[in-house]
Amino acid sequence: MNLLIKSIKDFLTFRILLLSTLPFLISFLIFGSLFLYGGSEFIDFLKASNEGNFANIDPQIHPIVNYILTLAFVKWIFVTFFYLFGTFLILLLSIIIGVVVVGFFTPYIVKIIHQKYYQNFQRDEINFKKVLWIYIKIFFVFIFLSIVAIPLLIVPGVNLFIFNIPFYYLFHNLLVVDVGSNIENIQRFKLITQKYKKEFISATFLSYLLSLIPIIGLFLQPLFVIFLTHLFFEKSKEPLHL
After folding, report:
1. Which residues of 113-126 are buried (b: 16+ CB within 10 A; e: fewer)?
2. Residue 12 — φ and ψ, nearest 5°?
3. pLDDT tens by residue, 1-38
4. Are 79 and 49 in contact (CB under 8 A)?
5. Whose CA is closest to 221, among 66, 11, 3?
6. What is the rounded distance in angstroms from the CA atom of residue 27 to the CA atom of residue 96?
7. 84 sits in which H/E element
8. Are 174 and 99 in contact (CB under 8 A)?
9. What is the pTM of this model?
Protein backbone atom coordinates (compact mmCIF):
# COMPACT_ATOMS: atom_id res chain seq x y z
CA MET A 1 0.00 0.00 0.00
CA ASN A 2 2.89 2.35 0.79
CA LEU A 3 4.31 1.76 -2.69
CA LEU A 4 0.93 2.54 -4.26
CA ILE A 5 0.53 5.78 -2.30
CA LYS A 6 4.10 6.76 -3.13
CA SER A 7 3.53 5.94 -6.81
CA ILE A 8 0.34 8.00 -6.98
CA LYS A 9 2.12 10.99 -5.46
CA ASP A 10 4.92 10.65 -8.01
CA PHE A 11 2.35 10.34 -10.80
CA LEU A 12 0.55 13.52 -9.71
CA THR A 13 3.48 15.76 -10.56
CA PHE A 14 3.42 18.17 -13.46
CA ARG A 15 6.09 16.51 -15.62
CA ILE A 16 4.59 13.02 -15.22
CA LEU A 17 1.03 14.24 -15.83
CA LEU A 18 2.28 15.98 -18.96
CA LEU A 19 3.99 12.77 -20.02
CA SER A 20 0.78 10.79 -19.45
CA THR A 21 -0.95 12.60 -22.33
CA LEU A 22 1.45 11.13 -24.92
CA PRO A 23 0.07 7.54 -25.02
CA PHE A 24 -3.44 8.94 -25.57
CA LEU A 25 -2.38 11.47 -28.21
CA ILE A 26 -0.27 9.02 -30.20
CA SER A 27 -2.95 6.31 -30.07
CA PHE A 28 -5.50 8.87 -31.22
CA LEU A 29 -3.26 9.94 -34.11
CA ILE A 30 -2.60 6.35 -35.22
CA PHE A 31 -6.23 5.21 -35.16
CA GLY A 32 -7.41 8.57 -36.50
CA SER A 33 -5.09 8.20 -39.48
CA LEU A 34 -6.22 4.62 -40.11
CA PHE A 35 -9.86 5.67 -40.03
CA LEU A 36 -9.18 8.70 -42.22
CA TYR A 37 -7.55 6.64 -44.96
CA GLY A 38 -9.53 3.41 -44.59
CA GLY A 39 -12.73 4.55 -42.92
CA SER A 40 -14.85 4.86 -46.08
CA GLU A 41 -14.15 1.23 -47.09
CA PHE A 42 -14.94 0.09 -43.54
CA ILE A 43 -18.25 1.96 -43.50
CA ASP A 44 -19.16 0.61 -46.97
CA PHE A 45 -18.44 -2.91 -45.75
CA LEU A 46 -20.69 -2.52 -42.70
CA LYS A 47 -23.44 -0.96 -44.81
CA ALA A 48 -23.27 -3.79 -47.34
CA SER A 49 -23.31 -6.38 -44.55
CA ASN A 50 -26.29 -4.72 -42.90
CA GLU A 51 -28.17 -4.77 -46.21
CA GLY A 52 -27.33 -8.41 -46.76
CA ASN A 53 -25.06 -7.61 -49.69
CA PHE A 54 -22.27 -10.21 -49.51
CA ALA A 55 -20.66 -9.76 -52.90
CA ASN A 56 -18.12 -12.55 -52.36
CA ILE A 57 -20.84 -15.19 -51.92
CA ASP A 58 -22.51 -16.39 -55.15
CA PRO A 59 -26.21 -17.08 -54.39
CA GLN A 60 -26.32 -19.59 -57.28
CA ILE A 61 -23.52 -21.69 -55.81
CA HIS A 62 -24.34 -21.19 -52.11
CA PRO A 63 -28.11 -20.53 -51.97
CA ILE A 64 -28.54 -21.76 -48.39
CA VAL A 65 -25.63 -19.70 -47.04
CA ASN A 66 -26.86 -16.64 -48.93
CA TYR A 67 -30.39 -17.11 -47.55
CA ILE A 68 -29.14 -17.44 -43.96
CA LEU A 69 -27.01 -14.30 -44.27
CA THR A 70 -29.98 -12.28 -45.52
CA LEU A 71 -32.09 -13.08 -42.45
CA ALA A 72 -32.63 -10.01 -40.26
CA PHE A 73 -31.50 -11.56 -36.99
CA VAL A 74 -28.38 -13.05 -38.62
CA LYS A 75 -27.44 -9.65 -40.03
CA TRP A 76 -28.04 -8.08 -36.62
CA ILE A 77 -25.82 -10.68 -34.89
CA PHE A 78 -23.10 -10.29 -37.52
CA VAL A 79 -22.99 -6.48 -37.38
CA THR A 80 -23.26 -6.40 -33.57
CA PHE A 81 -20.43 -8.92 -33.17
CA PHE A 82 -18.33 -7.05 -35.72
CA TYR A 83 -18.81 -3.75 -33.88
CA LEU A 84 -18.17 -5.22 -30.43
CA PHE A 85 -15.14 -7.25 -31.47
CA GLY A 86 -13.74 -4.36 -33.51
CA THR A 87 -14.16 -1.93 -30.61
CA PHE A 88 -12.57 -4.38 -28.16
CA LEU A 89 -9.67 -5.08 -30.51
CA ILE A 90 -9.02 -1.36 -30.95
CA LEU A 91 -9.02 -0.99 -27.16
CA LEU A 92 -6.47 -3.79 -26.76
CA LEU A 93 -4.26 -2.41 -29.52
CA SER A 94 -4.41 1.07 -27.97
CA ILE A 95 -3.22 -0.42 -24.66
CA ILE A 96 -0.18 -1.98 -26.32
CA ILE A 97 0.54 1.23 -28.24
CA GLY A 98 0.37 3.07 -24.91
CA VAL A 99 2.85 0.64 -23.32
CA VAL A 100 5.23 0.95 -26.27
CA VAL A 101 5.02 4.76 -26.23
CA VAL A 102 5.62 5.08 -22.51
CA GLY A 103 8.44 2.54 -22.90
CA PHE A 104 10.50 5.21 -24.67
CA PHE A 105 10.23 7.34 -21.53
CA THR A 106 10.78 4.51 -19.02
CA PRO A 107 14.52 5.34 -18.61
CA TYR A 108 13.54 8.92 -17.77
CA ILE A 109 10.90 7.80 -15.25
CA VAL A 110 13.26 5.26 -13.64
CA LYS A 111 15.93 7.96 -13.36
CA ILE A 112 13.50 10.28 -11.56
CA ILE A 113 12.46 7.58 -9.07
CA HIS A 114 16.08 6.51 -8.57
CA GLN A 115 17.31 10.01 -7.78
CA LYS A 116 14.38 10.77 -5.50
CA TYR A 117 14.23 7.60 -3.39
CA TYR A 118 17.06 5.17 -4.16
CA GLN A 119 20.22 7.23 -4.63
CA ASN A 120 22.30 4.69 -2.71
CA PHE A 121 21.26 1.89 -5.05
CA GLN A 122 23.71 1.14 -7.84
CA ARG A 123 21.82 0.55 -11.08
CA ASP A 124 23.17 -2.03 -13.51
CA GLU A 125 21.28 -1.96 -16.81
CA ILE A 126 20.81 -4.98 -19.10
CA ASN A 127 22.81 -5.09 -22.32
CA PHE A 128 20.82 -3.69 -25.27
CA LYS A 129 21.36 -6.78 -27.45
CA LYS A 130 20.08 -9.06 -24.70
CA VAL A 131 17.03 -6.83 -24.17
CA LEU A 132 16.31 -6.86 -27.90
CA TRP A 133 16.44 -10.66 -27.96
CA ILE A 134 14.03 -10.80 -24.99
CA TYR A 135 11.61 -8.50 -26.86
CA ILE A 136 11.80 -10.68 -29.98
CA LYS A 137 10.93 -13.81 -27.97
CA ILE A 138 8.05 -11.98 -26.27
CA PHE A 139 6.53 -10.94 -29.60
CA PHE A 140 6.88 -14.44 -31.06
CA VAL A 141 5.06 -15.94 -28.07
CA PHE A 142 2.40 -13.23 -28.37
CA ILE A 143 1.84 -14.06 -32.05
CA PHE A 144 1.63 -17.78 -31.24
CA LEU A 145 -0.91 -17.21 -28.44
CA SER A 146 -2.96 -14.94 -30.73
CA ILE A 147 -3.05 -17.60 -33.48
CA VAL A 148 -4.18 -20.20 -30.93
CA ALA A 149 -6.89 -17.82 -29.66
CA ILE A 150 -8.44 -17.11 -33.06
CA PRO A 151 -10.32 -20.45 -33.49
CA LEU A 152 -11.69 -20.09 -29.94
CA LEU A 153 -13.57 -16.93 -30.94
CA ILE A 154 -16.44 -19.12 -32.12
CA VAL A 155 -16.85 -20.70 -28.65
CA PRO A 156 -19.60 -18.84 -26.71
CA GLY A 157 -18.38 -17.43 -23.43
CA VAL A 158 -14.73 -18.17 -24.18
CA ASN A 159 -14.70 -15.57 -26.98
CA LEU A 160 -15.45 -12.84 -24.42
CA PHE A 161 -12.04 -13.09 -22.78
CA ILE A 162 -9.78 -15.32 -24.88
CA PHE A 163 -7.93 -12.46 -26.61
CA ASN A 164 -7.08 -10.95 -23.23
CA ILE A 165 -4.63 -13.82 -22.67
CA PRO A 166 -2.12 -12.95 -25.44
CA PHE A 167 -2.56 -9.21 -24.89
CA TYR A 168 -2.02 -9.50 -21.13
CA TYR A 169 1.05 -11.64 -21.78
CA LEU A 170 2.43 -8.90 -24.03
CA PHE A 171 1.41 -6.12 -21.64
CA HIS A 172 2.98 -7.83 -18.61
CA ASN A 173 6.28 -8.69 -20.26
CA LEU A 174 6.76 -5.33 -22.00
CA LEU A 175 6.24 -3.47 -18.72
CA VAL A 176 8.45 -5.75 -16.64
CA VAL A 177 11.29 -5.83 -19.17
CA ASP A 178 11.05 -2.05 -19.83
CA VAL A 179 11.45 -1.28 -16.13
CA GLY A 180 13.79 -4.11 -15.15
CA SER A 181 16.21 -3.49 -18.03
CA ASN A 182 16.85 0.01 -16.65
CA ILE A 183 17.64 -1.22 -13.15
CA GLU A 184 19.32 -4.64 -13.14
CA ASN A 185 21.62 -6.84 -15.19
CA ILE A 186 20.21 -9.88 -16.95
CA GLN A 187 21.14 -12.37 -14.23
CA ARG A 188 19.63 -10.41 -11.35
CA PHE A 189 16.64 -9.44 -13.50
CA LYS A 190 15.77 -13.10 -14.04
CA LEU A 191 16.28 -13.95 -10.36
CA ILE A 192 14.11 -11.07 -9.14
CA THR A 193 11.27 -11.68 -11.60
CA GLN A 194 11.27 -15.42 -10.77
CA LYS A 195 11.51 -15.01 -6.98
CA TYR A 196 8.79 -12.32 -6.84
CA LYS A 197 6.74 -13.60 -9.75
CA LYS A 198 3.43 -13.33 -7.87
CA GLU A 199 4.05 -9.70 -6.88
CA PHE A 200 4.87 -8.66 -10.45
CA ILE A 201 1.91 -10.55 -11.91
CA SER A 202 -0.42 -8.97 -9.34
CA ALA A 203 0.90 -5.51 -10.19
CA THR A 204 0.63 -5.92 -13.97
CA PHE A 205 -2.72 -7.71 -13.82
CA LEU A 206 -4.29 -4.84 -11.87
CA SER A 207 -2.63 -2.40 -14.28
CA TYR A 208 -4.06 -4.32 -17.23
CA LEU A 209 -7.58 -4.20 -15.78
CA LEU A 210 -7.26 -0.43 -15.31
CA SER A 211 -5.94 -0.15 -18.87
CA LEU A 212 -9.21 -1.64 -20.14
CA ILE A 213 -11.01 1.53 -19.03
CA PRO A 214 -11.27 3.53 -22.29
CA ILE A 215 -9.12 6.71 -22.43
CA ILE A 216 -8.39 6.68 -18.66
CA GLY A 217 -6.29 3.54 -19.06
CA LEU A 218 -4.04 5.29 -21.56
CA PHE A 219 -3.42 8.22 -19.22
CA LEU A 220 -2.43 5.85 -16.40
CA GLN A 221 0.42 4.16 -18.30
CA PRO A 222 3.18 6.21 -16.56
CA LEU A 223 1.63 5.29 -13.19
CA PHE A 224 2.08 1.60 -13.98
CA VAL A 225 5.74 2.22 -14.84
CA ILE A 226 6.27 4.21 -11.63
CA PHE A 227 4.73 1.49 -9.46
CA LEU A 228 6.79 -1.27 -11.12
CA THR A 229 9.91 0.86 -10.74
CA HIS A 230 9.33 1.17 -6.99
CA LEU A 231 8.60 -2.57 -6.81
CA PHE A 232 11.80 -3.44 -8.68
CA PHE A 233 13.97 -1.20 -6.52
CA GLU A 234 12.44 -2.54 -3.31
CA LYS A 235 12.90 -6.17 -4.36
CA SER A 236 16.39 -5.47 -5.68
CA LYS A 237 17.45 -4.27 -2.21
CA GLU A 238 16.55 -7.65 -0.71
CA PRO A 239 19.18 -10.41 -0.67
CA LEU A 240 19.16 -12.84 -3.60
CA HIS A 241 20.77 -16.28 -3.92
CA LEU A 242 23.02 -15.94 -6.99
Report:
1. bbeeebeeeeeebb
2. -85, 45
3. 688 999 999 999 999 998 888 888 887 787 667 666 65
4. yes
5. 11
6. 10
7. helix 72-103
8. yes
9. 0.79
